[in-house]
Amino acid sequence: MRCYCVAEFGEPLQRMERPTPQPKGTEVLVRVSHCGVCHTDVHLWHGYYDLGDGKKLELSGRGVKPPFTPGHEMFGEVVSVGPEAPESVIGRRGVVFPWVGCGNCAHCREGDDHLCATPRFLGVFSPGGYGDHVIVPSERHVVEMQGVDPALAATYACSGLTAFGALAKARPFGPDAPLVLIGAGGVGLTAVALLVAEGATGYTVVDIDDGKLSVARSLGAPATLNARAPDTNKQIASAGAPATVIDFVGSEETAAMALGVLRKGGTYIVVGLYGGALKIPLPSIPLRVLRIQGSYVGNLATFEELAALVSTGRVPAIPVERRAWHRCTETLEALEAGQVNGRVVLEIGEEQ
Ligand SMILES: [Zn+2]
Ligand SMILES: [Zn+2]
């Protein structure tokens, strides 16, 4: 098999040849055809998260050590199965659910693999979809989506599930409980698409890029706002102070904006991993009865719910740009520079 690997943190990814793995037990082998490029891949490539105040969370201390193959938004086809997996799934085409846990801890036994303390997430702690073949723990982790283009389908494994999971935490919302979404990148736009699918109103999308905001409006977002405007907080407040802010960026600036506009009893949901530190006067948390909540992808049951929703055809497609496999490094650079509209999906296995 071939793959593009992070051979050294921050260096261009290297094309490598590896023996194609054989599935064991319940495992299945998937030939990957499409893989989305997520902002998390940028952090994996650099090898750290920014914790603010000059501190870093080094990923090498958490089991992410070069050389490794990133890519957790995978679409592909089951091409062989282990001795304990049903042969009937050979030929199944679907999205790979990558958020796999240890299988033994309390969270994993509850089906919440994404909360596992010793995860095996594909494309993070195990090889992912920047390679043309990937081992998946069982056929249950290859989820079909009806009538969805494979490149778009791939993005639901992370940006879709992340948006879906964050929106679930924000309910109920609507005109009496306004919702603000910060960030109209791949995840934020997918959140808009999901809100359009359910006919939601009473939410505003905030970003600093007019191009991204216009994509949000074209998907069906009822209101957008450029945060570079000097009176952003006032404009948000004019539509009613939000009950919930979902922050798909997760920077010090967006946190300050979110906590500045929330109404009493409001909830700040942090999704984005841009980085920095949260600075807030502690008395304001009890006095304003604020709730601060993190949201990170979701479990397999939630992903199956999302797949069922997407299969209805009601969720509008976010912009997806297909790129040749070997353009992975330049795509990571573009994503880091904020130059990607929607999602870039690599076409894996295409000859160059
Ligand atoms: Zn576990
Ligand atoms: Zn991701």
From TrEMBL:
<keyword id="KW-0479">Metal-binding</keyword>
<dbReference type="InterPro" id="IPR020843">
    <property type="entry name" value="ER"/>
</dbReference>
<dbReference type="InterPro" id="IPR036291">
    <property type="entry name" value="NAD(P)-bd_dom_sf"/>
</dbReference>
<keyword id="KW-0862">Zinc</keyword>
<dbReference type="InterPro" id="IPR002328">
    <property type="entry name" value="ADH_Zn_CS"/>
</dbReference>
<dbReference type="Pfam" id="PF00107">
    <property type="entry name" value="ADH_zinc_N"/>
</dbReference>
<protein>
    <recommendedName>
        <fullName>alcohol dehydrogenase</fullName>
        <ecNumber>1.1.1.1</ecNumber>
    </recommendedName>
</protein>
<dbReference type="InterPro" id="IPR011032">
    <property type="entry name" value="GroES-like_sf"/>
</dbReference>
<dbReference type="InterPro" id="IPR013149">
    <property type="entry name" value="ADH-like_C"/>
</dbReference>
<comment type="similarity">
    <text>Belongs to the zinc-containing alcohol dehydrogenase family.</text>
</comment>
<dbReference type="InterPro" id="IPR013154">
    <property type="entry name" value="ADH-like_N"/>
</dbReference>
<dbReference type="Pfam" id="PF08240">
    <property type="entry name" value="ADH_N"/>
</dbReference>
<keyword id="KW-0560">Oxidoreductase</keyword>
<feature type="domain" description="Enoyl reductase (ER)">
    <location>
        <begin position="10"/>
        <end position="346"/>
    </location>
</feature>
